[in-house]
């Protein structure tokens, strides 16, 4: 890969995907951090994201790539048209995991492949920084006093609750849950990587990014990528699968 700062998940997805795909979809592409690199894997690369701001930034970073604003649950593509799909750390953010996988399956051609990565429910899944805000919000919006001690439920925290944005937890999947979600696909291979260091680096990265400490930011990213490249089995924090849409019988 040309970019030495490309993260390990992008490298692995690039390595796992076969060459000569006619159309490749990068679903939940964000600002297109990885999208441009997949041009070496397909004739046509399309990035999809729900955020228009992300897509504008992605377009500035990547030339010769089309970007489409859409929800993962409703992909604006015809049936059986896509040769490969990249969906890295996106599924856990969707409102309907089943609908998202169903849509991906629908647009993929027979024997097309998908590289899917999600957080894994290993030994340290509870250290996920993405969930900290959610659980703190749940705590501060729970009334300290029951209704019997005066006022209706939650009255004491009504003012705070208005300021809090609720959201879905950053879901970590078990292997059994993933197998059920992709049951229409054939699993070609998978790897479970990252452990304790990886989530701790994500926490540290929030601090270094806010403080704009560039050299520490790069060091934290280096540690995170190094830990991501190590297989930890059932203790892992991340999982990546390569799956294939089978031929119709």
TrEMBL record:
Q: Which GO molecular function annotations are given, in alphabetical order?
A: S-adenosylmethionine-dependent methyltransferase activity
Q: Entry's InterPro entries?
A: Methyltransf_11, SAM-dependent_MTases_sf
> What CDD domains does this protein map onto?
AdoMet_MTases (cd02440)
Gene3D superfamilies given in the database record: Vaccinia Virus protein VP39
* Residues in Methyltransferase type domain copies: 25-114
Q: Which PANTHER family match?
A: 2-METHOXY-6-POLYPRENYL-1,4-BENZOQUINOL METHYLASE, MITOCHONDRIAL (PTHR43591:SF24), METHYLTRANSFERASE (PTHR43591)
Q: What is this protein identified as? A: Methyltransferase type 11 domain-containing protein
